[in-house]
Design a protein that fits this description.
By secondary structure, the chain is an alpha+beta fold. It has a domain of 39 residues. Helices cover 14% and strands 29% of the residues. The protein is built from one helix and three strands; from the N terminus they run E-H-E-E. It has a three-stranded antiparallel sheet, covered by helices on one side. The longest helix is centred in the middle third of the chain and has 8 residues. 8% of the residues are buried.
Length: 59
Amino acid sequence: ITAQPAEAVAAVSHRAAISLMLIVAGRRGWRVLRRDLSNGGVSVVVPRESTGRRPPGRP
C-alpha cells in the first residue's frame, strides 16, 4: 500500500482485490478496516496496530 508512514489509506479496487494485492505484495502489516462495495469497491486500509480511531484530543 505505502512504504511511508500513514494512519489510513483509502483504496479503490474490485471487490476483494485489495486484500489479494496486500497478500501478493507481502504487506501483512496492513488490514482492510472497512469496505463499501456499493460505491465501486472503496476500502479503508489501516496498519494492523491501528484501531481505526483517533486518540482523544486529535482532530
